[in-house]
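Consider the following input, taken from an annotated entry for HSac2 domain-containing protein (Iphiclides podalirius).
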Amino acid sequence: MGDLLEDDLELRVGTLQLSTDNTNADNRRDNASESNRNKNELIANSSVLSGADSLSSSTSSFAGRDARTEGTTNSRPENEEPERTVYPRYDVPFSSENIKDFFTFRKGVVENAIQDCITALLFPEDGEYLGSWLLTEITLWDNEKERIVLLTSRLVMTIKYDFIAMKQLDFKKTYLDDLDTIVIGELVYPPSSLVPRINGIATGVTTVVKDCVIDRLCRRPTGGDAEAKVFDPKYFEPRERNLRGVRLMWNKGEPLSMKTAWNPFSQDVPFLTFASHPIYWHKEGSVEDRSMYDMETFAQKLQRAIESMASSSCCIHHSPIVIQSYVGVTSLLHNKISLGFFKVRGKFSF
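Applying the prediction step yields:
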């Protein structure tokens, strides 16, 4: 599809160069351009409703643009300004200390859980088994939840699993034939959303309290530049997700009904959104060893599965994924304390 678009663009450019002296041709091109702009506006409007800002060709590669690429260098023209640096603590979900509270961080827990799900839930009619992952599902209301994801040649299975009692709680099958759109890209909020601002304030307050109060009770203040850095106003700047995801949709571009959009317990949401599990950034080993927690690996195999299906009409796009959250106070609290993950929480575990 991307090649067709490129050929079409090249053809139009050639026509523009050969007919610069023809007034009538110019008028026809203007009318055609106006028609194309109107068509693009309709596509953009429907893409917003389906979860993407601007849909582009799927021929681009899977570029790791998040904190996973830390330590790698990309070639950049000399005259191009360097990218704005972001404090590392905002790029990586959770800290290396808190990540050990996750039950899934313990050796062998995820592997045993996945094997249990494969044995109990997959049947020959579900198709050929292609892979399994532990990912973060992001709900319609921007809540993060820990999920096991199984991929076969016919379906995607999302499993809610109790990693404390080591048992399945719920599962959902989504057949690949039903998918009409897959979007891969950055997780973003609408321009009018207050979530980035609220997240920045909350994160800044948490950082200052930790550095000024908690850390100073445990060690002697260093003073100087370190002391001034604590109150850096950048800590309070709006914080976007800084995270990539993949969204699977079967709504055919139609907007959500009011009943679904305003019901936090609705089971009729026509899309699934996944991101990498927080353990990905903290698990020891190579990229291959951590691929079980990697959204990008899942997206690649999902794309191959879709492309190998002759009957599938699913379109794959690389563009921002819009999270329709405008205030998000409850989701911010939910995600900050990891209510969607099984963790050790003081004297309790849930």
